[in-house]
Amino acid sequence: MATNNDxxxxxxxxxxxxxxxxxxxxxxxxxxxxxxxTRAVLQSSVxxxxxxxxxxxxxxxxxxxxxxxKVKADCGAVLCDAGENWKMHTDVRxxxxxxxxxxxxxxxxxxxxxxxxxxxxxxxxxxxxQLDVEAVPAGYxxxxxFDPDIDTFYEDWQDELAPDKR
Length: 166
Fold this sequence. Notes:
Blueprint: H1 5-12, H2 18-25, H3 34-44, E1 52-57, E2 60-65, E3 68-73, E4 78-81, E5 91-95, H4 98-101, E6 117-123, E7 130-137, H5 150-157
Antiparallel strand pairs: 1-2, 2-3, 3-4, 5-6, 6-7
């Protein structure tokens, strides 16, 4: 059964029931067009024309441009080249003292004050959409969750060229 756009839209918005997810969106065997359908739905949800190559998270994508592959937010802000750590190009709020953490967690759910703990919130510098959150020890490096090998994904897994190379 082919995954349709309505199902993918509901999945992205978090409105898909478990039954629909298990039986229709994640059938066995996998729908070979599911990624392309998802990419088309995501593309239709943004107000810019650069082809989305892969989503990085709910509001961030690697896109193809005339200047190469870039990391781009929903709002259209280009953060950096795709090979760079996009988190280094965001506005960051770091919560590390008990008063800041208690804005989010009750006293009994906050980390022990003796820990050197940070809650880092990464925001788009253009529209201030929250792009990511990480809870780490103080001094921990700022790392991306993953660095996709876009050409291998398309050529070896999708059996086609990436949209920016077609």
